[in-house]
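Each record in this resource describes a single protein on a pair of labelled lines. The shape at a given residue is found from the number at the same position. The record below illustrates this layout:

***
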Amino acid sequence: MSTIIKTNYVAVQFADRSQPGIYSGREYTYIADKRLAVGDIVYADTRLGGTLAKVVAVNVQEHTIDPKIRPLLKHITDGPLPPDKVPQPRPQAVTQMTLG
């Protein structure tokens, strides 16, 4: 009897380094070792070091991932950060203009 191991692929967007609490840009695929949900903030290793990332998709289908990069995918080994450890976006400054 063989056991089928399901790999849990997730897509994340990285934190904006200049704007804490903002996650944007291209989506990157990782292998999640723990159960994650859309919206979770996680710590993700990159080739330039670790960073915070927001989970934007779970259960990404394996056939949508380029077979050449599958062996290179990094793992997210921990679960989501607790809410009190997640940076919050800074409120935008309001500028009032006068015409005259």
